[in-house]
Amino acid sequence: MITKDFHASKRKLYSDLLEDGSAGFVFSGGQRGDRGDMMHHFTPYANFYYLTGFTQPKAVLMITKIAGKVREVLFIDHPNEMAKRWLGIFYTKESVKEETGIENVEYLETFEDSLPFFSGSGRVQNVYIDIANWEGAFSTNEAQKFAARVHEYNPTLKMHNTFYDLGLMRQVKSPEEIALHRKACDITAKGVENILAHLRPDMYEYEIEAHFDYTLRSMNARHAFPTIAASEANACCMHYEDNHRKMLDGDMILFDLGAEWGYYAADVSRTFPVNGKFTEQQKELYNVVLAGLDAALAASKPGQPKEELQELSKSVMADELIRLGYIQKPEEISKYYFHGSGHYIGLYAHDVGNNDVPLEENMMFTLEPGLYFDDLKLGIRIEDTLLVTKDGCEVLSGKIPKTVEEIEEFMAQYKR
Predict the structure, then answer these.
(1) How many independent structural domains does the chain possess?
(2) Gap between the Cα atoms of 286 and 336, Å rounded
(3) Same domain, 186 and 156
(4) Would you give per-residue pLDDT tens digits along the chain (416 residues)?
(5) Which of 146, 128, 131, 147 is nearest to 63 (CA)?
């Protein structure tokens, strides 16, 4: 798992971003309510976790750099006896100090009194706040509200958003992070094997999804994102998640799924024949998508511009579709291909980073070409989770059957 030293090294990189006379803030986020008195499972904001390793809500990391001296303070919630009794949650300043290695841990009630721009005129001229806005335009989160309050208090303070800077830090993975990704991919492979062992006509999409869920729960893993189990025409909807259709003999089903281990994600897509055997047309079109993926995989190495891989996959698939008579010109592939060919992966399945830079060793990303034929009620996507190596890439999800022959051979073992 990730060590205290890992998080400390990332805080050092963060403090290096700060100008002298600065205070930086990163919020863990709050727990969201569900129905009635229920609460959603809490996952800390990724940049906060990256810097601290602390996984509880309502926490704030403050790092100051004043007169060349860096000071770290972690402000935490104050669990009460009810939280301990009903939820099993209890921690103290001392236990969190030991857990995180952060020397200064204080309770949240002291946060505002500790803000350095309230004391000593001119000691702080810059305020760095990590602001990510996933909710949409003009919505506000805790970090945004804090930034607005600081600006209202003193409009002369210079405000900086460190979200982009921390995203660049997270692009290249450490050995500890790679090990967690590898474990997430191995668990995902076990889950897909369980799917293939039970997949057959007349099941509902949610029934086969449950076999993946069982594997993750039995291995104490979480989902990296909601599973897509999309058969027939449902596979032509990019983010279909209802998973309630009854699968018929001759259908194909597209899965987009992944396990999360130690907060690090796997992301895999596969498309399988429900009865274990591709038709000739299904095989033909499946191999077009696979050719697009294989071409991009072969080109993935340090120095390769990441975004060019998208065009490479499209070009190969377009040539194949022309050869098969589905289109006449390369640009006509837009009839059947609607999304990008991949994304960074890390603490989020769709992780942060700069897509316009060349690949580097120990970056991690996915490739996921796909073709979607509304008239055939057929969608095909094949996606792998990749690690950039010294001279190429390693397919961390490579244990999962991918070729037509591998899939049919694996499913034949379980035919009833």
Answers:
(1) 2
(2) 13
(3) no
(4) 799 999 999 999 999 999 999 999 999 998 776 777 666 788 999 999 999 999 999 999 999 999 999 999 999 998 776 666 666 677 889 999 999 999 999 999 999 999 988 766 678 999 999 998 765 666 678 999 999 999 999 999 999 999 999 999 999 999 999 999 999 999 999 999 999 999 999 999 999 999 999 999 999 999 999 999 999 999 999 989 999 999 999 999 999 999 999 999 999 999 999 999 999 999 999 999 999 999 999 999 999 999 999 999 999 999 999 999 999 999 999 999 999 878 999 999 999 999 999 999 999 999 999 999 999 999 999 999 999 999 999 999 999 999 999 999 999 998 75
(5) 128
344 vs 363: CA distance, rounded Å: 8
Say yes or no: 69 and 120 in one domain: yes
182 shares a domain with 65: no
User: 104-119 in b/e burial notation, b at 16+ Cβ within 10 A?
Assistant: ebbeeeebeeebbbee
Domain of residue 388, residue span? 175-412
Q: Say if residue 127 is in the same domain as residue 54.
A: yes
